[in-house]
Amino acid sequence: MYGALGSLLLKAAPHVALYSGIGAAGLGITNKIDENILKDVYRETLEKDGGVFKPKGFTSLILKPFVNEQEVIDSRQTQALNELIVANNENPDDYKHFTPQTSLTVAQGNILGNQRKREKAEEAAKLEKAMEIPRRQMTLAESNQAAANLLAQQQLGLAQQTRADQMRMRADDLKLERERLAREDQRYNDRLERDERRDREKAFIALMGGGLDALGAAFA
Question: Is pTM, for the whole model, over 0.85?
Answer without folding.
Answer: no
